[in-house]
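Hi support team,

I'm filing this because I wasn't sure whether my run with nicotinamide-adenine-dinucleotide finished correctly. The job status page said complete, but I'd like someone to confirm that the output block is well-formed before I use it downstream. Pasting the exact inputs I used:
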Amino acid sequence: WLGLTDKVVIVTGGASGIGRHVVTTLVAAGAKAVIVDMNVTTGEMLDGAYCVQCNVTDSASVRAMADTVVQKYGRIDALVNNAGINMPRLLVDVQGDRPEYELNDDSFNKMFSVNVKGVFLCAQACARQMLKQGKGVIVNMSSESGKEGSQGQSAYSATKGAVDSFTRSWAKELGKYNVRVLACAPGIMEATGLRTDAYNEALAYTRGCKPEDLSTDYSKVIPLGRDGKLDEVGDLVAYLVSDRASYIAGTTINISGGKSRG
Ligand code: NAD
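And here is everything the job wrote out:
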């Protein structure tokens, strides 16, 4: 139904979490998925997907990645710009006892480097090939916090606001070349690689609660009454990269159980 058989789809950050589930959904739909991640070895296969090691913040690494994919498969039908990092930080640590959880140059630069520069470099490298083909799709992974903001995640949220803005501009630049650019914005997702103990401790500190209290009673804030499943994002992305979504571009689709409305 999706018509993804043999479509070449790059998934950055595809080695874990949401990206890994996007990959398995694409492979099940018959696509030639390519996992692009720091934590893989070029040439290995994971879940039926070819892997290319790449640091998305490094332009030479990203260009080499796109060349490798084109050499192997001859084209790039879609890019899922999913690699991202989140480091919970306060603008000002009012209590002053955990300076490591205050936003500083290093954490700011790291988040903007992966979440914004990485998205830009991968989009540019893949769009060059898509323009030659006269067709392509770029799906950027945003977050509900990009639209809504989030306590303790101001810089992360700002990076996702930038992703949404890139999405709207690139859709305008590339639409006439038959390249669709769009984004999706997950809300609260079940456990992912991001949700390590260290992450939970930092997020809890920035919100003034205990780590074990972070996820109490989601039903109060999520109309569907539960956190999202990674497969649900996989299904959405598979649809968005397919020709079934051929008239969707320049927008960010919420997948948050009804929580975000913007
Ligand atoms: P994750 O930590 O499980 O996976 C991220 C992957 O990106 C990892 O495999 C990591 O190795 C890779 N990566 C990180 N930096 C990289 C770099 N410089 N170059 C190449 N690869 C790199 O994360 P996740 O929770 O699956 O999140 C995936 C995306 O979804 C991110 O953009 C995140 O902001 C977004 N998101 C996640 C949630 C959530 O609840 N998990 C919610 C909304 C949006």
